[in-house]
Request: fold
Amino acid sequence: MSDMDRTDPGGPDGASVVEVKTAATAALIPTIRAVASDLAARADFDLDAISDLRMAVDEACATLVDIAAPGSSLRCAFSVHDERIGVEAEVDVAAPDTTVSTDTFGWRVLQTLADEVELVGAKDNGRPTIGIKLDKRAAALPR
Amino acid sequence: MTAADPEYGHLAPLLEEYAALGPDDPRREPLRDRLVTGFLPIAQHIARRFNHRGEPLDDLVQVATVGLINAVDRYSPEKGNDFFSFAVPTISGEVRRHFRDQGWSMRVPRRLKDLHVSINGVVSELSQGLGRAPKPSEIAERLGVPVSEVLEGLEASEAYRSSSLDEMLSSEQGSATVGELVGEADAELDRVDFRQALRPVLNELPERERTIVMLRFFGNMTQTQIAEQVGISQMHVSRLLAQTLDRLRNRLDPDTRTG
Amino acid sequence: MLDPAPESSGRAGALSATLSSPAPDVRLLTVAGEVDTLTAPRLADGLTGLLDDERSTPVVDLADVSFLASSGLAVLIHAAHRATGQGRALHLVATSRAVTRPLEITGSDRLFEMHSGLEEVLTGGGSGPAPRGAD
Reply:
């Protein structure tokens, strides 16, 4: 997932990119989900889709903060396209074999909220990282 | 209230009589009037507790009386609780709700409040027509306002909802049982008073001082925790709290106030 | 005197959950703020207290909740199961999209008696508490 760092500000398809980097602590997730909510509202997502994205980003970040290496940071990049927003959240982990459990209630909720979710393990300059990529379209699924 | 209470003791049998009457009984109206009049000092007492908070006392007495009427109507003697322990939280809850509603309108600029009401009004209507939730642009078009204003309105409703000040207003009853509330009613109201009184003062404080006071009193954080959160020393937090509390004391001292 | 916050209570975060009895046979948990991974334990504590009283109708007022994460949903669902085990329903008052949307999209709204206002519960609408004097 280290290609997040290489994303052009303009984006290959005219997307605008916003990156947020915080300490990997749950106390700062409200800030990140507020950014998600604001971006979706400005991208003219419908109100349900705004709410879904905010919750999905919260879920992804909370999952990653749980497994982050002590003292590391949480990096969250939003790419805003015409009709969708892509999110790539990532943390450093201490052990290379760290995983995210995907048979949890939280992960099921995440899959329900986002149009696509993907777990990404990678190495960034030799440090093991784990990321969650998700995609949300501007019009929410009907209830 | 107990049977031995000289002021309200004579009302206890009337309460039982009232509770036993059917909804259409012609004796309800006059009996209710007697009960409300009899217990009115309780409502007035609670209303006075909230006086000098920017709301006219007459309004507060009126709101407290509505709470009293609700209490008289909903009270069931056969449940075993005495009336006072049921009425005090009911009445102060009504007054608190009044402050919360008023508080919202005081803190939110008139324009945003109107906007918020308008947005809520069209959202459900648009949802039905579209078969999904509307987008900000669709709300803007329906209302004939710029999208930026809709964004502002949506943000305002969210921000004000999640403010710790709303939290404190709805959190005064604590987890005490109704029975425990009897003895603590006065202390409880004092605390409501204090936090309620803080609000206008808080609005005048510089941002950092406000954050510190909110963290201390509404977030229940220690000075050390606040120091970490705000990024200054614990000594500095202590000093700022002391200064701020002096300011609050001056504001809250009844002798320096008129009315 | 101007220091009412006890040192021992720890950080409350941006969530409050308070119990009260607005009517003789109703126990009410009023929740305000954001329910996320940090604050969900506080909601869980409140729900435990609410359901420990098995004689009244349990109601959770979420009208002032501005965010509900999956951790909060999980806590609510757990409480719904406990209430069902006690042979009663857990009543939820939900008005804002921040609460109704997560409940609806996950289908968990079906686990509760949903209400759009506290008055609805107190006046005994639907399967709410029995009207006063009925017993």
User: Anything to note?
Assistant: Chain A has one domain: 3-137. The longest strand of chain A covers residues 127-137. The domain at 3-137 of chain A is CATH 3.30.565.10 (Heat Shock Protein 90). Strands of chain A lie at 16-23, 73-80, 84-92, 116-124, 127-137.
